[in-house]
Amino acid sequence: MNARTLYDKIWDDHVVDQAEDGTCLLYIDRHLVHEVTSPQAFEGLRMTGRRVRAPEKTIAVPDHNVPTTLDRANAKTMTEDSRIQVEALDMNAREFGLHYYPVSDVRQGIVHIVGPEQGWTLPGMTVVCGDSHTATHGAFGSLAHGIGTSEVEHVLATQTLIQRKAKNFKVEITGSLMPGVTAKDITMAVIGETGTAGGTGYVIEYCGQAIRELSMEGRMTVCNMAIEGGARAGLIAPDEKTFAYCMGRPHAPKGAAWEAALAYWKTLFTDEGAHFDKVITIRGEDIAPLVTWGTSPEDVLPITATVPAASDFKGGKVEAAQRSLDYMGLTPGMKLTDIKIDTVFIGSCTNGRIEDLRAAAAVLKGKKIKDGMRAMVVPGSGLVRAQAEEEGLAQIFLDAGFEWRLAGCSMCLAMNPDQLAPGERCAATSNRNFEGRQGRGGRTHLLSPAMAAAAAITGHLTDIRTLMTETV
Amino acid sequence: MEKFTKLTGVAAPMPLVNIDTDMIIPKQFLKTIKRSGLGANLFDEMRFNLDGTEIDSFVLNQPAYRKAEIIIAGDNFGCGSSREHAPWALLDFGIRSVIATSFADIFYNNCFKNGILPIVMPQDVVDTLMEDSRRGENARITVDLENQTVTTSDGQSFPFEVDAFKKHCLMNGLDDISLTMEKATNIDSYEAKAATLRPWV
Ligand code: SF4
Question: Which of A64, A242, B12, B178 is the most exposed place for a label (fewest CB within 10 A)?
C-alpha cells in the first residue's frame, strides 16, 4: 500500500461511499452539540419527521450563552433569548435521547473541553460539532472539524457528512521551546507565518520535537487555532501521552476493548515518505512570546516588537491594517509593551484547561493585579474548576484579585453578560481578536495564559520573560 | 432550498480582506432559534451606529447598493466561526452571490446549503469586478451558474470553477439529507463493518 499521511488513514477508514467526482460520504464517530448552532437543526428534524440516527454518539452541552457568575442557578441572570436557547437544547437533548450535561452538572463546560475530558474524543475518530473550534480534538489524532447548522442536521439524521478530501499540510516545529514560550505561542507563530487563509483547503498535521514535548493540554491549544489559520482541521499523531490521557476516562474503552483500541491507535501515524502538498518548518527556539496587535489572528508579533504601520503591508491588507489600527486605537511605532490593559480574561477552549490555569497561577502567586484592573478566570469545565480548587490555584487567583468563575465560553465571544465596553482593552487567552468579538468596540490582544497573568500584574502588555528573571 | 441558476443584479464593493463572520452577523444576533429575520442585522456593527442610526459611509447604506444581490470582496471572506447565521443573514438581506479571491472553508460550504453561490476568482478578475461594481446601480453584474460565468455590465465575461455536485444541488434546490438518506444501506453496512473493526467506537 502507498505511504499515507495520518489524515489519509483516518479518512480512508471513514468513507461510507464515494461518488465518481470524488465527493464522499464520511462516517462521523462523535457529534458534539451546543445551544447556539443546533436549534434550527433539531427543528428541521421535527419538521421532516426524522430521528437522530445515533443518539449514543451525540453529546450535548450548553456553553456559549450560560452565565459564569456564581449566581447562575438563578434563571434571572440569563437574558430571555439566551434562556430560550439553553432551554431548547435541554428539550432537544431529552427528546432525542442524547448524552447531555446540563448547566447544573459539574461536568458541564466548553464543549471542546468536555469531549476529551469525558473520553468521548479518542484517537482515529471523526469528530464534528457546529463550532469552528472543533479542531481542538485533533490533538488526539482524530479528524475533527466545525460544521454549519445544515450539516449538523445532516449528521443528526444520517451520522455522515458530505465531504471532499482536503490536501495535506505538514507543519513541523523542530527543537525545543525557550523558557516563557508556550503552546499558544506555537500556534500563533504558525498563523503569523501562513496568514489566516494559509491553511484553506488543507488539513494540517503538526509534528516535530516541540510538538511531541507538549502535554495533551498544550497540543489541544495548538490544534484549537488551526481554524484561525484557515485549515479544515489540525492533527497530531497519538503517542504514549495521548494514550495515558485517554486511559480511565469515563467513555474510553476498558479491558480487552482498550487493548484492541490501543493496537489500532498505534497504527495512526504518517508513513515514511507520505506526500504532503505543503510543508513549513519553524524552529522552536525562534518562537518568542507573541501577542496580537490588530483584529485578525494573523496580526501577531513578538512582545518585544512595535506596532506596525499600514504602509508595512501589501494589497488588500493595507486597508485592513489601517482599519485595525484605528479600531484598536494604536499608533504605529509604539512599543507593544507600552499598551495599557483594562481587563484580563483567562479561559476559553484555547486556554481554559488545568495546565493553563497552573501557568497563570505560577505567575500570579503572591502578587496582586494592578489597581483598577478587571481580571477573571473562567475554567473550561466544572471539573477543571474543581481540580484547580483542589490544587490551591483558585485561592492564588482570588488572592491576586481575579474573579473565579463557573465554566463556560464567557468573554471569549461575549454572548453571555461578560462583555467589554467600547474602547475597553483586554488581554485574552482566547482565539479571536475580531472587531466586537468580546463586546462592541472592545479591543482584544491574544496571548498565552502566563502572558495574560503578567499583564494583569503590570497593567500593560508585558514580556513574561522579564518577570521570570525577577523571580529567579 | 431556493434554486440558483442565473442572476443579474447590483453588486456591492467591499474591498476588505478577512471579512469575518463576526462582522457579517455579530454574536448578539445568534440567540435566535430561527433561520429567518437576520437580514436586518447583516453587518450590524459596520452598518449602524450605537443609537441604531445608519452609518452613511457603509456601502449597503448607500442608495445605489441598498438592494445589492452580489458582494465583491477581498481575500478570505467568511473566516471565523462556523455560524450558519452568516449565510442566513446574507440571504435574508437579499445577497445571492459573493465573489472573492478566497473563502473560509466552512462558510463556503454553508453558502451552498442556503442557495447562495460563492465564487472564487483570481485577483485581477476581482479587481475588474470591483471597479465595475463601484459604478453603482447602473452596473449590473450577471452570475450564470449553468455556464459558470460572471459577466460585467459592459459584457466582459469570466469563467469560474465550481464543484459539480454542489452545482447540481444548487441548480435544482436539492436537499442533501434526502440525497444521503437514499444511501441508508451503505451507512448500515459501514456501521456493521466498523462495529467489528473498531467496536470501542
Ligand atoms: S470558548 Fe470561545 S472559541 Fe471556544 S467554543 Fe466557546 S466561544 Fe467558541
Answer: B178
Per-residue pLDDT tens over the stretch A249-266:
999 999 999 999 999 999
Q: Which residue of B has its CA nearest to A119?
A: B201
What percent of chain B clears pLDDT 90, i.e. is strictly above it? 89
What is the number of other CB atoms lying within 10 angstroms of the CB of residue B36?
Answer: 10
Q: Which residues of B touch A325 (CB under 8 A)?
A: none
Q: Angle at which helices B164-172 and B105-112 pack, to 10 degrees?
A: 40
Q: In terms of Cα–Cα distance, which of B80, B74, B98, B85 is closest to B38? A: B85
Q: Give me A146's grid cell.
A: 466545525
Chain A neighbors of B50, CB-CB under 8 A? 422, 440
pLDDT digits (tens, 9 = 90+) for A264-309: 999 999 999 999 999 999 999 999 999 999 999 999 999 999 999 9
Q: What is the pLDDT of residues A208-239, one digit of tens each?
A: 999 999 999 999 999 999 999 999 999 999 99
Q: Which of B82, B186, B197 sits opposite A130 (nearest CB)?
A: B82
Looking up cell 495548538 gives: A222
The 10 Å Cβ neighbour count of residue A376 is 20
pLDDT of residue A470: 58
How many CB pairs (< 8 A) connect A and B? 184
> How would you label A232-270 residue by residue, b for 16+ Cβ within 10 Å and e otherwise?
bbbbbbbbebbbebbeebebbbeeeebeebbebbeebbb
Whole-angstrom distance, CA of residue B115 vs CA of residue B117: 7
C-alpha cell at A188: 500563533
B31 with A65: Cβ contact below 8 A: yes
Cell numbers placing A336: 507593544
A13, A40, A162: residue with CB nearest B180: A162
Q: Where are the alpha helices (DSSP H) in A372-463?
A: 382-390, 393-400, 449-458
Residue A310, C-alpha cell as written in the block? 499600514
Q: If 0-12 CB within 10 Å is exposed, 13-18 middle and 19+ buried, where does residue A56 land? A: exposed
Angle, helix A354-364 to helix A449-458, in steps of 10 degrees: 30
Question: Is A214:A223 a contact under the CB 8 Å cutoff?
Answer: no
Burial class of A74 by CB neighbour count within 10 A (0 to 12, 13 to 18, 19+): exposed
Q: SS3 for A435?
A: coil
A16 is written with which cell numbers? Answer: 461510507
ipTM above 0.90, yes or no: yes
Residue-wise pLDDT for A30-75, tens only, equals: 999 999 999 999 999 999 999 999 999 999 999 999 999 998 888 7
Q: What share of chain A is helix, strand, coil (3-state, %, to 5)?
A: 40, 15, 45
**How close are the terminal C-alpha atoms of chain A, in Å?**
54
Q: pLDDT digit string (tens) for A166-178? A: 999 999 999 999 9
